[in-house]
Design goal:
It contains 29 helices and 13 strands. The protein is about 45% helix and about 5% strand. Strands 1-2-3-5-4 form a five-stranded antiparallel sheet, with helices on one face. It has a three-stranded antiparallel sheet with strand order 6-8-9. The chain starts with a helix and ends in an 11-residue tail after the last helix. The radius of gyration is 36 Å and the shape is elongated.
Length: about 750
């Protein structure tokens, strides 16, 4: 009757038993199964011993002894006990998820250098962990494992080697009587003193396990051991490990080194454990006691090492250690680069759980160095940020960067909007961002930042609300056409071309073209060249509609269009936009570098006065002219804003204006005096050098990808051959002009006189 009401304990077992892992039967009394915890789905390993069918009473007692031993031993390199269950039929042991070491050794291919290097590092780190486990057992726990071999080493998800198989473990006090092993496969691992009782007198508490360590080393490099005599040949054992190996398999038990000595010898320079992976992981384990300078040096070096580390170790071992270092070790901004590099190995769910909280926490930091590092790395993690996270937790902190006193912070804040625009809500993008853009474009003293603001606005135009976009773009870009900084004017020209699909034809004829025509007389050749190209494109568009008025609707189709879903993926391809050179060239040359080691930037850190470094302005005009003269395309060349390359050395002159605010009237600002700028250009050698690289050839993935230039090609003449002939004559005439001006410059340089824009004083 009692059996009727009794329950099977295995049915209440809190773990689901999955498929069996084969290949371990030779070395284990247990059968190893994959498992999963009920409720959470956590992966585990379940070791099962069937006491009724496959296990004798002796085997059952040994299994129970091993379970008890494993339950009381807690060490990072010993198999982690989780749960167990004993029934009349079976004995269940639940541990962390592990797989036999042989599986992992076979998974590495030696055909590729990187894979071969990863395998070498994997083995070195694994053997290091086994030696540490034996040091704990023999020296601290006063135990002998007595079965060290390939079959008793298991590997967890993080690639860490775990010592298992404690069925034959005995106290060190019984070291003079080695146990009898039930499984015959273990006999080949017995040390020579087991058959020679005279040698047992000189045995130490670690000698048996050190012999087993030698057997493990041989098997790792040469495959499963067939007989003890095979140990005499080194085989594929590395030379750096050969001397230690020979001591481990010495016939005299007393000559075998203590595990502590093995660690000391192999960790010395030139030793087998002295490599980047071992040093990296040990540093992370001790990071709490490291100095800040040591941490900074380590994190700066780490990204270059990660590619050589095994992926599972990087993902499940290095990354969690980095996150802990960030949360509890005061690692600072230096941790960002390796953190984001390792984050690319995670799934989207893991990234949201492990990396995004760190990013949100870092954005709230008042440290300027941390803010710059975050903004510089934004392109690597922006795709993983959810819109609600950006708008509620990140954007409020980014806003302060628009008004920061340091120009580096302002510049990177402006450029960050390219990656955040697809995720910003209406108010943040169409009100807050545009308000700060208007102020920066009209009043910022740095010409490079004014240029970047114009370029960035052109890149995020597709995400603006149609009504806001129609009201803002023309006013903003025509203001840029009057900027005293030549690259800013070029940026305005190219931005107008790149966003031409968002303008009504009346806007083009009444606002855009009149403003553009002023630049046809600009002192800078680069500005004039781009202005002519874009003017031709707009006129061609108007001509087509004039010839066929039915095209008006098609030409204005995108004016009120919202951002298309596929456009949101284009920000990543725009990461190489031209004005990214501003920080690397301008601020560096001005001596306003952001210190990596220091805790923060000084509040008043600014670029030095332009007059402190007199130089001449250099332009690559001839390269642009050659590009223009060699162009044989039928369609009009609009130019490419991505190819605007400049070092944002600022001409201190700036245009005063009220800014273009969405709440204000959008009337154009006052015209800029060209004569006043010409006077400033004459004295430009007293300013900071401005380097222009205006190679305006087409580039794939640039601004021209947003429209098809063939739609606005100039109408062909009645005779195509005649038009080609005229272009060829024009090209030849340009080449002659170039040669003439070269000769004139050479004569001027030898005779002295005032420096001209684009000339060098020899």
């Amino acid at each position: 009757m009692w059996s009727f009401f009794s329950r099977d304990p295995s049915k209440e077992f809190g773990y689901e038993i999955l498929e069996q892992l084969t290949g371990t039967e030779e070395y284990m009394l247990w059968k190893l199964h994959k498992g999963k915890k009920k409720g959470t789905g956590e992966s585990v390993s379940v070791f099962i011993l069937d006491a009724k069918t496959n296990g004798s009473d002796t085997q059952t007692e040994l299994a129970k002894s091993a379970l008890k031993r494993l339950k009381t031993l807690r060490h990072p390199n010993i198999l982690t006990y989780i749960d167990s269950l004993e029934t009349e039929k079976c004995l269940y042991l639940v541990t962390e998820y592990v797989e036999p070491l042989q599986f992992h050794l076979n998974s590495y291919s030696t055909d590729f250098p990187q894979s071969k290097q990863q395998k070498e590092l994997f083995i070195a780190w694994g053997l290091f962990q086994v030696v540490r486990a034996l040091k704990f057992l023999n020296n601290d726990g006063n135990l002998q494992h007595n079965s060290i071999c390939l079959g008793n080493i298991l590997v967890n998800t993080a690639g860490e080697w775990k010592l298992g198989g404690f069925e034959n473990a005995t106290p060190s006090s019984l070291m003079n009587s080695l146990p009898i092993k039930i499984l015959p496969s273990f006999e080949k691992y017995d040390p020579p003193e087991k058959v020679d009782s005279s040698k047992l007198k000189s045995a130490t508490k670690w000698s048996a396990d050190m012999w087993g360590l030698g057997c493990l080393i041989w098997e790792v490099f040469n495959g499963p051991l067939k007989s003890p005599s095979s140990l005499k040949a080194l085989g594929n054992i590395p030379k750096r490990l050969a001397s230690v190996y020979c001591e481990l398999v010495g016939a005299n038990p007393s000559s075998r080194p203590n595990p502590s000595d093995v660690l000391t010898i192999c960790r010395k320079p030139g030793g087998y454990f002295h490599n980047d992976l071992v040093e990296c992981l040990l540093f992370l384990e001790e990071i709490q006691i490291k100095e800040n300078t040591e941490k900074a040096q380590f994190f700066n070096k780490l990204p270059s090492l990660l590619d050589s580390f095994p992926e599972n170790l990087s993902r499940h071992k290095v990354l969690p250690q980095l996150i802990n270092a960030f949360e509890f070790g005061n690692a600072g901004a230096a941790i960002l680069t390796p953190l984001f590099k390792l984050g690319s190995l995670l799934t989207e769910e893991e990234y949201q759980k492990r990396i995004v909280p760190c990013v949100v926490k870092l954005f709230s930091s008042p440290d300027r160095a941390t803010r710059v590092r975050l903004l510089q790395q934004l392109e690597h993690f922006s795709t993983h940020l959810l819109p609600v996270t950006v708008n509620d937790n990140i954007f409020p902190h980014i806003l302060s960067g628009f008004t920061d006193s340091n120009p580096i912070i302002r510049e990177h804040t402006v450029k960050s909007i390219i990656f955040l625009a697809p995720k910003l809500n209406y108010n943040n993008l169409n009100v807050e961002v545009l308000k700060h853009f208007a102020r920066l474009q009209s009043k910022d003293e740095q010409g490079g930042i004014r240029t970047n603001t114009t370029v960035c606005l052109g890149k995020v135009a597709s995400f603006l609300h149609p009504q806001v976009r129609q009201k803002v773009l023309v006013s903003a870009f025509t203001r840029a056409l009057r900027d005293p900084f030549p690259p800013a004017r070029i940026g305005g020209v190219l931005a107008l071309a790149a966003t031409q699909q968002y303008y009504l034809l009346n806007q083009i004829s009444h606002q855009v073209l009149p403003a553009m025509c002023v630049l046809t007389g600009d002192p800078e050749r680069e500005v004039r060249d781009q202005a002519f190209k874009v003017i031709k494109g707009f006129i061609s568009k108007l001509e087509k509609v004039s010839e066929d008025p039915s095209l008006r609707e098609c030409m204005e189709a995108d004016v009120n269009a919202n951002a298309s879903p596929n456009v949101t993926d284009m920000a990543s391809t725009w990461a190489g936009w031209a004005v990214s050179a501003v920080t690397s060239k301008f601020y560096k040359s001005q001596g306003s570098q952001l210190p990596d080691q220091g805790p923060s930037l000084p509040a008043g850190s600014q670029t030095t006065s332009a007059t402190q470094n007199p130089s001449v302005v250099e332009t690559t005009v001839e390269a642009t002219r050659r590009s223009d003269s060699e162009s044989n395309e039928e369609s009009v060349q609009w130019g490419n804003i991505n190819e605007l390359s400049l070092s944002s050395n600022t001409v201190d002159d700036k245009e005063e204006g009220d800014g273009w605010d969405i709440q204000e009237d959008w009337a154009p600002i006052e015209s800029f005096e060209q004569d006043s700028f010409a006077t400033k250009v004459t004295n430009i050698r007293d300013k900071t050098p401005v380097t222009l690289n205006t190679n305006f050839e087409k580039e794939e993935g640039g601004w021209e990808s947003t429209w098809n230039t063939n739609n606005w090609a100039t109408p062909e003449g009645n005779d195509k051959d005649e038009s080609r002939k005229k272009r060829e004559e024009k090209r030849i005439q340009r080449q002659k002009e170039i040669e003439a001006k070269r000769s004139a410059r050479q004569g001027a340089s030898s005779g002295g006189g005032a420096l001209k824009l684009g000339g060098k004083k020899m």
